[in-house]
Amino acid sequence: MSRRALLLFLLMSLIWGIPYLFIRIAVAEISPAVLVFARTGIAAVLLLPVAIARGEVGPALARWRWVLAFAAAEVGIPWVLLGSAEERVTSALAALLVAGVPLVGTVIGIATGSRDRVGRVGVAGLLVGLVGVAGIVGVTADAANGTALLEIGLVVVGYATGPAILARRLGGVPSLGVMAVSLAACAAVYAPIAFLQRPAALPGTDVFAAVAILGVVCTTFAFVLFGALVGEIGAVRATVITYINPAVAALLGVAVLREAFTIPMAIGFVLVILGSVLATRMPPPAAPDGAPRRAIRPLPEVDESGA
Length: 307
What we know:
Blueprint: H1 3-15, H2 19-26, H3 32-53, H4 57-62, H5 64-85, H6 91-98, H7 101-112, H8 120-138, H9 146-169, H10 175-196, H11 205-233, H12 235-238, H13 245-257, H14 263-279
Helix pairs in contact: 1-11, 2-6, 2-11, 3-5, 3-10, 3-11, 5-9, 5-10, 6-13, 7-9, 7-14, 8-14
């Protein structure tokens, strides 16, 4: 890996690890819908002109139904649910549970036929990951945050469904055009909701800063950097950042917000990551009689939009 690729990798690991912290700060004073509108609106204003200049909006609009489906699964629904969940649970817990996206992605892949088969290692990975999730929830769950845990579960499903739509229904469509149109559509949908839920008093400067960072850095800038990273090391290797983001988020939650982070939570997180790695490893393809078998071990394809 070149120095440039390593720098991009480290930046992306940080940039998509910090949204959980700033979401937690923002929803303390504004509603999740207002936050989603502000974040998507900022990103759309910055990305749409670039996508239009590159001629990437037209191809995205040609498949507008699937672009809207992707927008709903990857941005519109998960982002508002994540904001709602973080009104009641810590950013560290939210990030650790979202780390289970590759596990759900594997199940979706099996159900939709995009994965021919999952071997014993894959099944073991799913079970290990499930134990990890159960461990994280078991040491943190209580009656007050049951709804939040359900919301995070739906976030995980959305984050796992989005890439499946992108890969199977939007193949060949420029990614910048898809993201620009998706963000613009979400901003348009949430605009009237945000107006009705606008805060009665002007939020604090920390909230404005959090929204600005989420819109400019964690969304707009992140997509540009991710495209450069993919150009350096390829899409498959670039997705390794998914295994680092939750750890960054948990550490920030503990350091900045003084959130609790216990040994059982750490063990559960390790099990989720281990399970994800095992579950998303494709088994060796069946070889013709007499032909040598060659193991193929690609890394998983996961969410490219971040939290």
